[in-house]
Design a protein that fits this description.
The chain is mostly helical and 505 residues long. It is 71% helix and 4% strand. The protein folds into 2 domains: 213 residues, Up-down Bundle (Growth Hormone, Chain: A), CATH 1.20.1250; 233 residues, Growth Hormone, Chain: A. Strands 1-2 form a two-stranded antiparallel sheet. It is globular, with a radius of gyration of 23 Å.
Length: 505
């Protein structure tokens, strides 16, 4: 296996096609690993260990803060110049750590188990961040620009499908277990996640790696990072991205806790809601991509952001103790709409960063985007987790009161309690996010009504094209988008862009 991890001097077209085949399978199995060991399953496991709001916030913050490891990762890759070997070993090591999490249900001390869970997540995310740094640089050199769109769409499709199936299966497995068997069901999910990860690593190891070309630049990355801060328009973009990352991550990491603890929904229902949002995200991503190709990314954000924050605030209306079916129906609608809006936000913010970064300076500019997103996304859940503990015993009620001589009556409108405070704060911060967006300058801006019309037209076209075959079948600027640019820019090589923006692992 060692020899197979070495880069090769020449990679034929046939080798590239076989490599694409392995990489699609790698992404599918990696998505299954994530669905069985992260997201809803991870939060539910932490709750089963009696984790408090601060611990949940830490678990949500770790993936963001770990992305900073990609900065030294660039230097490490340049020195080792063996991206495949580095990626396979560190990613496989992270999956060994996932396997070790299956032992935590057997730890009698719950506080110790939570501490070990947090430590394991730190190790997993750091290894995954470093591995993604190597993989993105490797894929950027291996995959031709003209084939990137079709290749990454296939990876997204199979990754979304397998990840959704894994989430549903894990939810059903854990939901039907009771008592101590419930913790054993979590252990089984983590074991399955680890072996799915080992399968992903096996496919990744079969993919050829071309020999890295060029010589590293002598410019220090810290010196290059100062340039974006002197660019007024890009500095406005950074402030917008930072505020968006903070506002969204104040509430999103705690949605699962809110649904299970405050609304009392079962894990099976919560996983179904999560999968529905993922599918809506994936399906809308294509439509948003078609729209953003013709109009400015800022115009897409001007529509998608208000929709997302309105839905975030509307989550407080889901508590309907007298009409639970109505509350559940509202949650399903909100997950679909939020998923679709999040697809447009993720696509547009990523493309906007690529568009406003000056040609030839992508590494420094996009690295700064990643740093802002990582810090904002890491600190927000920690602050929100600490705040949620103080909101535990507090409630804000809105009532209508009628008084007349000899009569006084009150009609409760709605109340905000505990986790719902986070959703309201996040929605209010959305106003500041829109203000920061207005300060960003991008050519080709159009009105919101035009964006909605274009989106509706693309949706109608897609439905029409699918009707003949009987049917159709989903965060946030990812920090690692700049890495594949970074390794080439440090060597002084030209960077290739894929239509519609960069797509990462």
């Amino acid at each position: 296996m060692t020899s197979s991890l070495r880069p090769v001097a020449e990679v034929s077209e046939a080798d590239v096609e076989r490599g694409k085949h392995w990489l699609v399978r790698d992404a599918a199995w990696a998505s299954l690993t994530g669905s069985l060991s992260g997201g809803v399953v991870l939060v539910a496991f932490a709750l089963a260990l009696d984790a408090g709001p601060l611990a949940i916030g830490m678990l949500a913050a770790i993936p963001f803060l770990a992305q900073i490891a990609q900065l030294p990762g660039i230097t490490l890759i340049e020195r080792l110049r063996q991206r495949k070997r580095l990626a396979v070993w560190v990613i496989t090591a992270s999956r060994v750590v996932i396997l070790s999490i299956a032992l935590l249900p057997f730890v009698p001390d719950r506080r110790l188990a939570i501490t070990l869970l947090v430590a394991a997540q730190v190790a997993i995310c750091l290894a995954g961040s470093l591995g993604a740094c190597a993989v993105n640089s490797w894929l950027h050199q291996l995959i031709r620009p003209e084939g990137m769109g079709a290749f990454f769409s296939r990876r997204l499709l199979w990754g979304t499908l397998l990840g959704s199936i894994g989430t549903l299966l894990a939810g059903q497995l854990i939901e039907h277990a009771t008592g101590r068997d419930r913790l054993f069901a979590f252990a089984a999910a983590f074991v399955a996640a680890a072996f799915a990860g080992f399968t992903s690593s096996w496919y990744l190891a079969r993919t050829p790696e071309p020999v890295m070309t060029g010589e590293p630049s002598r410019e220090r990355l810290t010196d290059a990072l100062r340039r974006p801060l002197r660019d007024t328009n890009f500095r406005n973009l950074l402030m917008f991205l930072g505020s968006w990352t903070v506002a969204s991550n104040l509430a999103a990491p705690f949605l699962t806790v809110y649904l299970m603890r405050q609304l009392g929904l079962s894990l099976g229902v919560v996983t179904a809601l999560g999968v529905l949002g993922q599918l809506a995200n994936a399906m809308a991503l294509y439509l948003w991509g078609r729209v953003s190709d013709r109009i400015a990314n800022k115009s897409v954000l001007a529509v998608a952001l208000p929709v997302y924050f309105v839905c975030t605030g509307a989550l407080v209306l889901a508590y309907q103790p007298d009409r639970p079916a109505l509350g559940l129906a509202l949650l399903f609608v909100l997950h679909v709409v939020m998923g679709a809006a999040a697809g447009g936000i993720g696509l547009a913010t990523g493309n906007l960063g690529l568009k406003l970064a000056p040609q030839g300076q992508g590494t420094a500019y996009l690295a700064m985007v990643g740093l802002v997103s990582a810090v904002g996304g890491g600190l927000a859940p920690l602050v929100a987790g600490a705040a949620a503990e103080s909101f535990d015993a507090r409630q804000l009620s809105f009532v209508m009161r009628w008084e007349e001589p000899g009569l006084r009556s009150e009609l409760p409108v709605f109340a905000i309690a505990h986790w719902e405070f986070l959703f309201v704060i996040s929605a209010l911060l959305g106003l500041y996010v829109l203000h920061r967006l207005s300060r960003v300058v991008e050519s080709g801006e159009v009105g919101e009504r035009f964006v909605v019309q274009e989106f509706a037209i693309e949706a109608a076209r897609s439905v029409d094209s699918l009707s003949s075959i009987g049917g159709a079948l989903g965060n946030v600027f990812p920090f690692r988008r700049f890495v594949s640019w970074g390794t080439q820019r440090l060597r002084g090589e030209p960077v290739r862009r894929a239509e519609g923006g960069w797509r990462g692992r």
